[in-house]
Amino acid sequence: MTADAAPVTSTITAILTDGVVKGAVYALVALGYTMVYGVLGMINFAHGEVFMIGMFACVYGIGVMSTAWGDHVVLNLLLGVAIAMVFSAAYGYANERIAYRRLRKAHVLAPLTSAIGVSTFLQYFIFLTVSKQNVDFPRYYSDWLTNGHVRFAGIDVTYLQVAIVGVTLALMAALFYLINATRLGIALRAVAQDQLMAGLVGIPVNKVIAFTFVLGSALAAVAGVMVAMYNDVLGFDAGYRVGLKAFTAAILGGIGNVPGAVLGAVILGVSEALTTYFYGSGWSDVTTFVVLMLVLLLRPRGLLGERVADKV
Amino acid sequence: MGAILLLLAGCGGSKQAPATISIGLAGCQSGSDAQIGTSMLNGSRIAIDEWNAKGGVLGKQINPIILDDEGKSDKAVNVAQTLVDDGVVAVIGHFNSSCTIPASRVYNDAKVLEISPGSTNPQYTEQGFPDAFRICGRDDQQGPAAAAFLRDTLKLEKIAILDDKTSYGQGIADEVKKNFEAKGGTVVSYSGIGKDEHEFRTNIDVIKGSGAQALFWGGMYGQGGPLFVQLRQAGVTIPFISDDGAFDQAMIDTVGKDAANIYLTFGKDYHVMPGAADFIKKYNDTFHEAEGAYSVYGYDAANAILTAMQTAGTTDADKVSAVLKGQPFDTILGKIEFNAKGDVKESGYIIWTIKDGKFQVFGGNP
Fold first, then answer.
1. Which CATH architecture has domain B140-266?
2. Inter-chain touch A14–B194, beta carbons under 8 Å
3. What is the pTM of this model?
4. Could B191 and A280 be called an inter-chain contact, meaning their C-beta atoms sit closer than 8 Å?
5. CA angle, corner B217, sides to B237 and B102, nearest 5?
6. pLDDT at A8
7. Which pLDDT value is given to residue A91?
8. Which pairs count as long-range contacts for A123-131, CB under 8 Å and 24+ apart, including other chains?
9. Are B342 and B318 in contact (CB under 8 A)?
10. Check: CATH 3.40.50.1970 for B19-137+273-336?
11. pLDDT mean for each 10 residues of chain B (366 residues)
12. Chain A residue with Cα closest to B155
């Protein structure tokens, strides 16, 4: 039993790394917030719940598959992610179709209130029908990711951490490309600027908006599966905390801006990690919102949110 | 006019002499602590069923009113108010200290007897309420047990402490810190984390960097399990020690069969007590699952207050309370006596470990 403290530099490196990973998790969820806001100008508070539904869909899907054809780790895990994406996307689409579409022209508070309602509804729906308790992620499937290490800057980084950061960056890049360099992206930006005009020039506005929800929800599902593996546990209220943090990150980076959401999320993750190091984790929520307030005082539209015309 | 008077008289009469005696069973049955809370109340339900089969208490059947406080303080106060409005004469519960303490004020105002099978925060019985009891130990008995184990048995000098910032988790963590330092040890890292957080990587980095020789977790199994798993994933093999809140089968399910170097403080092993086997069998037959750590406490708590009511010949809280404080009770956990505060005189915390996927007494049963 050695009692030697690790060198300070390696502790700081480890803290920063874990902070970046935490930020990457927030970022994947923040992308969904920021996309919906960019297109519709509304905040989809039910997004955290879609993330949580992805977690459950994956775990139950893996359960069904391992009874159906055995425990093939990689195959079942990948299919589990796919199932999570399908379920979350379906919920995201249903939310838009049922709770938001008819309120699109209503006062700005109406869809917001509706979103809060959907969030509570989904949380308690899962609570009452699926599980009232926390569920362990089947570690048989995640052990190779959480125990496998690569050496980076003198500290061990797990495969899962690499995957979380890698997937976040790849999806951000793909989203950025989609929005800025494809026909679909042009349609998205057109709808974001003026729904009526976009409709008049032949853009299927409803389909474009539905697509935004489907895409954002699928991203949240990917985040959900990775968080379930990373935290080793999932529950009906898992979306609330991550959702709140991701929403904060999206505001911090400039809501409506894709790279901004990722930047805001990483700043949030790292500042939480550093707070834990210097003052203890009890203070991390305090720092989060102090950072948010300072940024908003200095840049009311968020870090990258100045070019209003380019939003989406 | 006469008819109205008669009606009023009729109402008054039925209110004074209800056909049954209502007893509240309150605790968390959903959320992260659902398993341990539900199994505690299930223990009380078995006791009430047994009493009802024997003809009830004071010649009346007992009507249990079971309510869920979700482990949340505000919900617990609502539950307490509902139970008082429903006219319960006593309450068995709650489980979480953060629920029991605020709820106890409601019960005290309404003169309703309360007995908690599982809330260990000292403050509960330190409020000076005459009719508040607990059948488990207190954190100022449990904390010293953990601290003595770390300092005297494992001979450690530096430990890290993390808690869930609740009345319970922070309460026990404070006691461990105080007692470990009083024994000449140092707490090199001490912090809290929200009860809904399940990612502890940065905390683990800090603990790793602090050179702590052990980690004490003040909180429940819902977070303790993932914390242990993440600690070991980070390659930290120091002893992990926790409290009665982590003493649930769900903890074992999470940490897995290979978990090593993990210790918990809990009361004595009831499996070896006479009478436990009957109870365990009855529990398994009734609920089709294994009993929880606090099931026996729930059972004993219900038996103690029902016996006291029978002896007192009334359900009046002060009179039942006087009986509870005035005589010893035979329970599965042995002969117990309540002191003037409403605490049990002997708590008997010992050290447990997890081995071969089971809770086992550290060093074997004495």
1. 3-Layer(aba) Sandwich (3.40)
2. no
3. 0.89
4. yes
5. 170
6. 80
7. 96
8. A123/A49, A123/A52, A123/A236, A123/A237, A123/A239, A123/A240, A124/A236, A126/A49, A126/A52, A126/A53, A126/A56, A126/A236, A127/A236, A127/A237, A127/B30, A130/A56, A130/A60, A130/A236, A131/A56, A131/A235, A131/A236
9. no
10. no
11. 44 57 94 91 96 94 95 95 96 95 96 96 95 95 95 96 94 96 95 92 93 96 95 94 94 90 94 91 94 94 96 94 94 93 91 93 79
12. A1
Q: In this complex, is the C-beta atom of A129 within 8 Å of any C-beta atom belonging to chain B? A: no
Of A127, A147, A276, the CB nearest to B206: A276
Phi, psi of A69 (to 5 degrees): -140, 25
Question: Domain spans of chain B?
Answer: 19-137+273-336, 140-266
- Report yes or no: B115 and B301 within 8 Å, Cβ to Cβ: yes
- Measured between beta carbons, which residues in chain B are less than 8 angstroms from residue A277? 202, 205-206
How many residues in chain A? 312
Cβ-nearest to A133 among B35, B197, B210? B35
Extents of the domains making up chain A = 8-238
CB atoms closer than 10 angstroms to residue B356: 9
Picking from A11, A158, A238, the nearest residue to B205 by CB comes out as: A11
Average per-residue pLDDT in chain A? 90
Q: Copy the structure tokens of residue B69.
A: 């406080």
- Asked if the ipTM is above 0.90, the reply is no
A contacts of B225 (beta carbons < 8 Å): 136, 232-233
Instruction: Judge whether A146 is closer than 8 Å to chain B, CB to CB.
Output: yes
Q: Which residues in chain A are closer than 8 Å to B256, comparing Cβ atoms?
A: 139
**Are A133 and B34 inside 8 Å of each other by CB?**
yes
Share of chain A above pLDDT 70, in %: 96
**Mean pLDDT along residues A79-101:** 95
User: Does B213 contact A4 at a Cβ distance shorter than 8 Å?
Assistant: no
Kindly state the DSSP code that residue B256 receives in the 8-state scheme.
-
Residues of B in contact with A132 (CB under 8 A): 29-31, 34
Q: What was the pLDDT predicted at A18?
A: 94
B31 contacts in chain A (CB < 8 Å)? 132-133, 237
Find the residue in B nearest to A13 (Cα): B205
Judge whether residue A9 has pLDDT over 90.
Answer: no
Low-confidence winner among A273-287, A297-311, B101-115 (lowest mean pLDDT):
A297-311
Token pair in block for residue B267: 């009361």
**One-letter amino acid identity for A208?**
V
Give buried/exposed letters for B300-319 (b at 16+ CB in 10 A, else e). bbbbbbbbbbbbbeebebeb
What is the distance between the alpha carbons of residues B65 and B72, in angstroms, rounded to a whole number? Answer: 19
B35 vs A contacts (CB less than 8 Å): 133
Average pLDDT over residues A139-146: 89
Is B8 or A65 the better-scoring residue by pLDDT? Answer: A65
> If you average pLDDT over residues A233-257, what whole number do you get?
91
- The average pLDDT across A263-292 equals 91
